[in-house]
Amino acid sequence: MLARRLGLTDAIVIGLGSMIGAGVFAAFTPAAQAAGNGLLVGLVVAAIVAVCNATASGQLAAQYPTSGGTYVYGRERLGPWWGFIAGWSFVIGKTASCAAMAITFAAYAAPAGWERPVAVAAVLALAAVNYVGVTRTAFLARIIVVVVLLVLTVVVAAGVSSGLPAAHLADASSLVGSGAYGILQSAGLLFFAFAGYARIATLGEEVRDPSRTIPRAIVIALVIVVLVYAAVAVVMLGTVGPAGVAGSSAPLRDTVEAAGWGWAAPVVRIGAAAASLGALLALIAGIGRTTLAMAREGDLPRWLAAVHPRFSVPYRAEIALAVIVCVLVATVDLRGAIGFSSFGVLLYYLVANVAAYRQGHEHRRYPRALQIFGAIGCLVLVATLPITAIAVGVGVVLFGVGYRLVTRRVRGNPMSA
Question: Which of 158, 210, 305, 330 is 20 to 30 A away from residue 316, measured at CA?
């Protein structure tokens, strides 16, 4: 058993560190394209679905305190196929997240016209760093969170100092002007910015009084993040307008420039670049290890399970990931990458909600209604994502299912295995 050393404040800080990162620099542009000012409503919807998903993960983590997340929960509660869908959805969704982080880094750090080459170079460089066994440490993660919060404070201060031109926010009807479909699509895209919130749910063995501490930490951390994101969103929309946010590859930088704080633009660039690279480094490591676990089970090609004899990393999985991400960076835009990422991650949490619903009374910490609402929320947000993201996502999921069917038949395993 792990030592129970973490209190409520510790758990909240871990949750904030998992959520506040590069996503805030990337998700607002596609959300504004979908809903304009209505992204503020979409932000609330995304947060509500995130709460339901996080409580489902927390309940499952308490019963299965092991690595693997919903890949393990789905296998244990629902069967191997459910676990595979969760694991495959996680891998493909987070692979798209890698592309989104690289594109975001380049949008803030690269000279005009050099965005894609710089993004590809960032992926290759960080893949090389991971190859020799260097991943993002907890200390570095805390530094990045502090830097991002300072940058967001500068952005909000700049927007407030400009007076937030009333023309952009005065019309309350603009919050729903894009209709339910646009608002829900923005919620699905903004869900990307909450990635990492379920980290709190995995602390069952490390916090004191987990049945009380974890639920409170989840709610408090999510409320804080929503308030931070809402402040940034209001400032951006009020300063450059929904069209300005929708048309920008670097909306936070444009906000401080439009507010007359041109000196702060380099600060925003540095913060966005640091957050994006930190997220990308952690994603490459996390996906490589999930791929390793699935390859060992035969759910992905077994040759991906190779571990480097010197550096002790799943080097084949990470090389394959780097190649795929470079292809994505060279061929997709930010909205496509975020949409596809949200598609995979929402399916992942759909399985988590269904698995949590099936838990017995002795392991239940939350009412089943939360899992029902969470599952419905995931399905609704998936269905309202951009059509291209849905089509590609469905195709990739079916490809994974087909691969598993073929390999199981070749090995003579039953369909249920």
Answer: 330
Of the candidates 161, 152, 148, the one whose C-alpha atom is nearest the C-alpha of residue 238 is 161
Q: How confident is the model at residue 346 (pLDDT cuts 50, 70, 90)?
A: very high
CB atoms within 10 A of CB 402: 10
Considering only 101-110, 185-194, 245-254, 295-304, which range has the smallest mean pLDDT? Answer: 295-304
d(CA 1, CA 139): 24
At 6, give phi and psi (nearest 5°). Answer: -95, 135
Write down the domain spans for the chain.
Answer: 8-411
What CA dihedral angle connects 178, 43, 153 and 194, to 10 degrees?
Answer: -140
Amino acid at 146: V
The pair of three-digit structure tokens given for residue 163, joined into one six-digit string = 């007076």
Give the pLDDT of residue 7: 82
Tokens 């996390």, residue? 286
How confident is the model over 334-346, as a mean pLDDT?
A: 95
- pLDDT of 29 above 60: yes
| Mean pLDDT in residue range 92-113 | 94
CA nearest to 57, candidates 348, 378, 379, 383: 348
Take residue 350 and report the two structure tokens written for it. Answer: 């759909």
Residue 283 CB partners (closer than 8 Å, separation 6+): 94, 97, 98, 101
The residues, any chain, with a CB within 8 Å of residue 416's CB and separated by 6 or more, are 79, 80, 81
CA proximity to 159, closest of 36, 251, 274, 275: 251
Structure tokens at 215: 């639920």
Residues 6 or more apart from 66 whose CB is under 8 A from it?
72
What's the rounded Cα separation, in Å, for the pair 221 and 11? Answer: 9
Q: How confident is the model at residue 91 (pLDDT cuts 50, 70, 90)?
A: very high
Element (H, E) at 32: helix 28-35
And the tokens for 387?
Answer: 């059509």
Residues 303-333: b if buried by 16+ CB within 10 A, e if exposed: ebbeeeeeeebbbbbbebbbebbbebbeebe
The pTM assigned to this predicted structure is 0.89
E strand or H helix at 411: helix 387-411
For tokens 């959300």, name the residue: 31
Contact (CB, 8 A) for 52 and 72: no
